[in-house]
Automatic annotation (TrEMBL):
<dbReference type="InterPro" id="IPR012577">
    <property type="entry name" value="NIPSNAP"/>
</dbReference>
<dbReference type="Pfam" id="PF07978">
    <property type="entry name" value="NIPSNAP"/>
</dbReference>
<dbReference type="InterPro" id="IPR011008">
    <property type="entry name" value="Dimeric_a/b-barrel"/>
</dbReference>
<protein>
    <submittedName>
        <fullName>NIPSNAP family protein</fullName>
    </submittedName>
</protein>
<feature type="domain" description="NIPSNAP">
    <location>
        <begin position="7"/>
        <end position="99"/>
    </location>
</feature>
Length: 105
């Protein structure tokens, strides 16, 4: 399993647009073989940071999902929310290998 951690710097004045964007991507990940662990939005402290975590069974499965970017109409529509609203100022993806409670021992 591989988990993608996406760190966002967002425009806090456009949190509603970011939430629309996030809801679309959660659905897309789930529909295309991944498990979305959610978006984590500002609550207290820094108001311009957000995180997303989602997993795929393998890097190959993630790469197959990525082939839909810019091609599949649902993916294009999800990105259009981000692009037209400018709710995301920048983001960075990191891939991690989870160690889960079931992996103990």
């Amino acid at each position: 399993m591989i988990t993608c951690v996406v760190e966002y710097v967002i425009d806090p004045r456009k949190i509603d647009a970011f939430e629309r964007f996030a809801r679309r991507w959660m659905d897309l990940v789930q529909r295309h073989g991944g498990t979305h662990h959610g978006y984590f939005l500002p609550a207290e402290g820094a108001s311009d940071r957000a995180l997303a975590l989602f997993s795929f069974p393998s890097l190959a499965a993630y790469e197959e999902y990525r082939t839909l970017f810019g091609v599949d109409p649902d993916f294009v529509a999800a990105d259009r929310i981000r692009d037209e609203s400018d709710c995301v100022l920048r983001y960075e993806r990191t891939f991690m290998r989870p160690l889960l409670p079931g992996d103990l021992g």
